Amino acid sequence: xTDDLLVSAxxxxxxxxxxxxxxxxxxxxxxxxxxxxxxxxxxxVRPGSVEEVSDVMRLSSQxxxxxxxxxxxxxxxxxxxxxxxxxxxSLRRLDDVEPVDAEAGEVSCGxxxxxxxxxxxxxxxxxxxxxxxxxRDSATIGGMVATNAGGANVLRYGPMRxxxxxxxxxxxxxxxxxxxxxxxxxxxxxxxxxxLAGSEGTLAVLTRVRLRLVxxxxxxxxxxxxxxxxxxxxxxxxRLRRSLGSILALELFTDAGLELVxxxxxxxxxxxxxxxxxxxxxxxxxxxxxxxGLANALxxxxxxxxxxxxNDAVGRRRLWELREGHTESVNAEGIPHKxxxxxxxxxxxxxxxxxxxxxxxxxxxxxxxxxxxxxDGNLHVNILGPAPDDEVVDDAVLELTLRLGGSVxxxxxxxxxxxxxxxxxxxxxxxEAMRAVKRAWDPxxxxxxxxxxxxxxx
Length: 458
Prior knowledge:
seven-stranded antiparallel sheet
């Protein structure tokens, strides 16, 4: 099938409005959030149902055309944008959210539903989503499952794989597989949904998911405390985890990052006594207000004037902005290199303090801003200065991460950015086992080729 015939068939499948050929209309889908990764799509196709997704995959498979699935396009590793003439399959129109099953604490939604939309529906029924991200207004549930997104509350609720009860997905040849609504206890063979979580669109196209929800907490409190070192912040986080059972999030950021957020988001410092490192703590409970317990725990840490606490919605949002404002503030400074890595919690402080030194050793002019999730060892390393295609600083951070016993990808996946590091991280035997799964699900390698591992020669 020629390109023109395929595009014509895709247009007939989804309608002319939803098969974008014009370069100006495709542009927003062809560059990722970091602006480091971009390519050209043969067409951007926006199906409105699982049947249309199935038809798109069947037509593409028959034509031997590669397909790149895309959700909210908020990834950081180039895994959701075209590399060279693929069909880009946008799931954004699959955005419905079913009524929440308030008795079971579960909800089903289309893969294109945003996290914010599902949070709103869950909240109205007295429930909440266990995973939360700063990109909640853009990130889609399907994309979050496909990358096994984590976010701030992994410490308490786990990543997206832990929230997934059921799924609907389309294989490379257009076959639909479905396990809905899904059950928490289900030992009927392999956990296919768990396999799709983290597969980055390389095995199948997720079209619908069933999530288990978590109780909506009536009381929350947020505190920020300053420390002289990352080690001091991490030790404080450990003490807080042992003394407070209500901990939801433990976030680290630096004064350099705070300075950027203050400048670009026009927010004030949390207190006058500035420190090199900051720990943000959120506690939540459905029974008792955790404010006093959090305040007493902070007092025991002897942070003095380098501390602030809030339990009202406006105050909590103001303190969270100091952490969540990092992404936009860093992006406002230029095109960043964004490394999403993790290490054992015992090595987290070491990584936070050594990563800027590792970058300076290979590029003395680069600026490094780090922040991350203390409780699960996930650090985001943002580097400003090097050209987008200069990977020397990336390699320095990933090399340090592996030396500290860590993972080159904590929650955004391998994408195309870290393909060369996968064997270093997981080992040849494990990667070959992954390739075997890929060959079984997608024998022609048309789904997101080049993502996770290199395309085979034949």
